[in-house]
Amino acid sequence: MTEAETTWDTLDWPALERLRAGFLSGTGEAGAYWQSRADLANYDLTFAQRIAWKWDAVLGEMKLRGWTPPPGEVLDWGCGSGVAGRCVLREFDVKNVTALRLFDRSALAMEFAAARAKAVFPQLAVDSGVPETGRIGLLVLSHVLNELPDVQRDSLVQLARRAEAVLWVEPGTHADSRALIAMRERLRDDFDLIAPCTHQAACGLLTAGNERHWCHNFATPPAGVLADGDWVRFGQRMGIDMRSLPYSFLALERKGLRTAVEKFAGWSRVVGAPRVYKGFAKLFSCQADGVRDLTLQKRDAPAVFKRLRHEEPVLVVKCAVAGERVEAVEATLP
Question: Is residue 259 part of a domain?
């Protein structure tokens, strides 16, 4: 069976279970994920789609903020099956992309990702490897930090400093979020912070007393997925809660490259999931002066409260605050 023939009916469940065990144990550090192109095809149909849904949430927020990548190459570093790069190309105008460049420590992965990209974008130049010198256009990073020792993280920082812009998505765990915050702090002297931040200051989660918190949000699976028999069976067999899609992300653009996007300057970013109670909600809010828990009373903002009660994602808010109470609020959805 070729990878092109992989369907829900022909999934290699033992291969998926082996891949899942590798993800959880960290054996991917030895480059042992992909044993065949069929492994990548099985992954691309299943695990990679969950990553794509996270990218859809991130790219939706980037459009909300009025941001598009600068023209030039797109480098999907650590590409795996190439789903992140394809999501970015699908969301933005491919006419502004001169080429898609793929890098992975697995030659199998680069070959697979290139074939999938060419099938979707036949007119786009696709290449492999990282240029040794010079500027990089848009650097795309997806679910890479938990596999990198410190020395490789240092190298990745140096690579990012060559980029005109960076879009970076990681799992929404405490450890991965904290690792991404560390990268943010190392890069913010060179880059404008586009998202999720609404400010350019140091991350407020690094102040004493906030150690238990982390910067993350939740993507929403496409309509129908939770009732789809194939996805239900996948979640049960892999031990995955299909309702939960936590992610952390970072969007950067080189200082001085263009006029910085400041659509939500002065607003606050909602971190995590709002907690909704009878008559009020709690929002963990990040803004230039730090992070804090805010209380939103239903009577003060009934329309916003209704959104929260119906679990509609609220990403950024502009509010007047008295102590820890929100007195007036304007909210934006993705």
Answer: no
**pLDDT score at 307:** 83
Burial class (CB in 10 A: 0-12, 13-18, 19+), 155: exposed
Number of domains present in the structure of the chain: 2
Q: Does residue 226 lie in a domain region?
A: yes
Structural domain includes residue 263: no
Q: Is the pLDDT of residue 26 over 80?
A: no
- Residue 280 belongs to what domain range? 268-332
Residue-wise pLDDT for 275-302, tens only, equals 999 999 998 989 888 998 889 888 888 8
| Cβ-based neighbour number of residue 233 at 10 Å | 13
Measured torsion, CA atoms of residues 11, 221, 214, 323, in degrees rounded to the nearest 10: -170
CA distances from 169 to 48, 80, 119, 120, 274 (A): 13, 14, 24, 22, 21
User: In 3D, which of 298, 307, 300, 296 has the Cα closest to residue 332?
Assistant: 307
Coil, helix or strand at residue 334? coil
Q: Which tens digit of pLDDT belongs to each residue from 181-224?
A: 999 999 999 999 999 998 999 999 999 999 999 999 999 999 99
Q: How far is CA 84 from the centre of its chain?
A: 9
Judge contact between 251 and 194, C-beta under 8 A: yes
pLDDT digits (tens, 9 = 90+) for 216-265: 999 999 999 999 999 999 999 999 999 889 999 999 999 999 886 677 77
Angle at 44 between CA 100 and CA 122, to 5 degrees: 35
Distance CA 80, CA 91 (A): 19
Phi and psi at residue 127, to the nearest 5°: -135, 170
Rounded to whole angstroms, how far apart are CA atoms 145 and 326? 36
**57 and 181 assigned to the same domain:** yes
CA–CA separation, 322 and 326 (whole Å)? 6
> Using alpha carbons only, what angle is made at residue 60 by residues 130 and 123, rounded to the nearest 5 degrees?
45
DSSP 123-147: TS-EEES--SSS-EEEEEEES-GGG
